[in-house]
Specification:
- The structure is a homodimer of 386-residue chains.
- In chain A, α1 packs antiparallel against α8 (244-259), α5 runs parallel beside α6 (163-172) and α9 runs parallel beside α13.
- Chain A contains 13 helices and twelve strands.
- Chain A is 40% helix and 12% strand.
- Chain A is of the alpha/beta class and 386 residues long.
- Chain A has helices at residues 14-26, 38-58, 71-83, 102-113, 131-141, 163-172, 192-195, 244-259, 263-281, 308-317, 337-341, 346-349, 364-381; strands at 2-3, 65-68, 93-97, 117-121, 145-149, 177-179, 199-203, 214-218, 286-287, 298-302, 320-321, 352-356.
- At the A-B interface, α1, α2, α3, α4 and α8 of A face α1, α2, α3, α4 and α8 of B.
């Protein structure tokens, strides 16, 4: 079996698996990390040690790491922190891009109902957001903006966005910048402090940690208003007894990522080789965002006229698991919002499948995917689906 | 070692431990439950099967079970669902009791800042909320009330509240009722539909499931507005890729609870016996909420004049782990809010320790706690701390 849907969700990585099995076999420590007895303290120390490790790998300060349940919670929290009460201060607008994840889009829509204006930044045809447009919007509306939310890497195309430049512009205009790093962290190096962003985030299940875990990184932790209120946990930034076991696995997964950093280059080269070969075999094939900087392990590929879902099913029959777009919109066999924002035609848009591997996936997977994909295209080209 | 802080957090139960070790050893299935490939579907089916089991044990309909990250999130979500936009409809007030967990109190305060009035229901000296007062408040202000939030069992005293009567009154006056069942579920039988409440909830870490898991039960799931917005997961009621592994452990823990239901009676009798004996040995000792119906495994006990923290430390030196109050307020060596609401004097209030066991704790633990506590009281009585 080849699992090629890491952008959707990563399997629990081996280090985390081993760590958890050992922890469970030892049967503890278990306790409320906020209890003042020895066991509570032991659990707390374990969790705070995990926080230190996460901070180090992510290039953040220890107190900038707020544990939560995942990236979506981080996004909702960052919006809440910047927008709750902002209208009263004359901050009436937010900017997102047209390629944001539905978690950002839908959270934005919620705040539009509360009276905010949401401006959608255009995207170039290569899948990169239009930074020039952002620059002029910031100059025009900077003092009215409550938040800019633009991702670091796109979940469908894998295209890396100029998030450092965006930070610079936002900082210049004093506008908080939420950088959705869900697809970035764990796939390539990310340094929160160097990024300049006000908020960044991650989901444990995308990086090989336990499901239901996550981190919100906040430049000024004091600016984080709790969305889940509770009893003052996480220094008042996120209520609810902390998921200490899950948080420990975040540290293990991030250490595992750091350990395997040197695999990125080989993965990237192999992916480029794979893409070149499939295009050589099938000249009509389109790689979305081909000319833009992309994550090492993401390929979003279409053979116009062959429906993506048909390709997905063919690959699945060969025990290779890919998706057609993001998991959230997978059930809609239409051109995705991301591709529409890039100006991609339906002819291409309906044909895409997303192939996304992990840092530790064997490079030979690309050879196997190449053969399986070729077979699928050959078969399906005879009975084009649209 | 005797762990007697189940009300703070329960250890992962044996069935969950075994389940997880096996699942990790099998190394999967792992996937995004919203992906439409076979693996995604397999993960989804496992999670939905878990939802069915949880629904059955909790006496809820399948679609009334919304998975989330814990009880605190459930509380924030229920408040958000009932209060967001309520002012505009003339619903200006909420009622909570004086013995609510700080998660409810602090969430209430957040909404007070948004313009709501929060009325605090009085509590009788036995630790039971004053239902007669509630009845007259509902009659007087029913049409202005956006929410009533009163717990099913108190986290400190273990006193069981008349939640069915409260449901009946709230239903009569058409006021949504949030019943905080965090300390109730997993310690005694709870049937959501029979309870009549509009919202109930649980935290996995209180019932032996994985940390960072939880369920919000909603009578009318359509009334649940997502707090964490995301991409439409949990039928739009809770965004973010579901914590499918954690959710599976909720089903395992609830099945384990059901399997051990018959242990409640013996635990209850043993606790009563323990309390009678410690009072016989130390006639000054006070059991908080003694005359009220209580959870089988909770004792909140004080020897006036001996500081609770001193007792806690003495017990800890004998490898018995208890707390002085809830984990959230454990660091404040003053009479807790709950006890103040019951009219308890500082002389008693500063002396309390909370002894809380789990359904599967050996009954002999009470014998050992009895001896250790007696030893502690004997020792500390000579050097009374206040």
């Amino acid at each position: 079996m080849i699992y090629a849907d890491y952008n959707g969700s990563a399997p629990i990585c081996t280090d985390v698996k081993d760590y958890l099995i050992e922890r469970l076999k030892k049967d503890g420590p278990y306790s409320n990390p906020n209890a003042i007895h020895y066991l509570g303290n032991k659990v707390l120390m374990g969790m705070e040690n995990a926080r230190s490790i996460c901070a180090k790998v992510l290039g953040a300060d220890y107190n900038q790491i707020i544990f939560n349940s995942g990236a979506t919670e981080g996004i909702s929290t960052a919006f809440h922190s910047c927008l709750d009460g902002a209208l009263e201060k004359g901050k009436k607008a937010i900017i997102i891009s047209g390629i944001e994840h539905s978690a950002v889009v839908n959270t934005g829509k919620y705040w539009v109902e509360k009276g905010f204006e949401m401006k959608i930044l255009p995207t170039l045809s290569n899948g990169v957001v239009d930074v020039n447009a952002l620059e002029s919007w910031l100059a025009d509306f900077g003092d009215k903006l409550a938040l800019v939310a633009i991702m670091a890497a796109n979940n469908e195309t894998g295209v890396i966005q100029p998030y450092e430049k965006i930070s610079e512009l936002c900082n210049k205009h004093n506008v908080p910048y939420l950088c959705d790093t869900t697809q970035f962290v764990g796939k390539t190096l990310f340094n929160f402090k160097k990024s300049g962003a006000d908020f960044a985030l991650l989901s444990g299940h995308k990086i090989g940690a336990l499901t239901g875990t996550g981190i919100l990184m906040a430049k000024n932790p004091c600016s984080v208003k709790p969305l889940i209120i509770g009893g003052g946990q996480e220094k008042g930034h996120r209520g609810g007894t902390q998921n200490y076991i899950g948080n420990e696995t975040l540290a293990v997964a991030l250490k595992n990522f750091e350990k395997n950093l040197d695999k990125i280059e080989a993965l990237n080269s192999k992916r480029i080789e794979f893409e070149a070969e499939i295009k050589r075999r099938f000249p009509d094939v389109v790689i979305l965002g081909e000319d833009a900087p992309r994550l090492a392990s993401s390929t979003y590929i279409a053979y116009p006229g062959i429906h993506g879902q048909a390709v997905q099913i063919e690959l699945e029959s060969q025990d290779i698991f890919v998706t057609t777009s993001s998991a959230c919109s997978d059930n809609e066999p239409v051109t995705s919002k991301v591709l529409k924002a890039m100006g991609v035609t339906d002819s291409v848009g309906r044909g895409v499948v997303r192939i996304s591997l992990g840092l530790c996936s064997p490079l030979e997977y690309y050879d196997q995917i190449l053969e399986a994909l070729s077979k699928s295209y050959e078969k399906l080209a005879k009975i084009k689906s649209y």
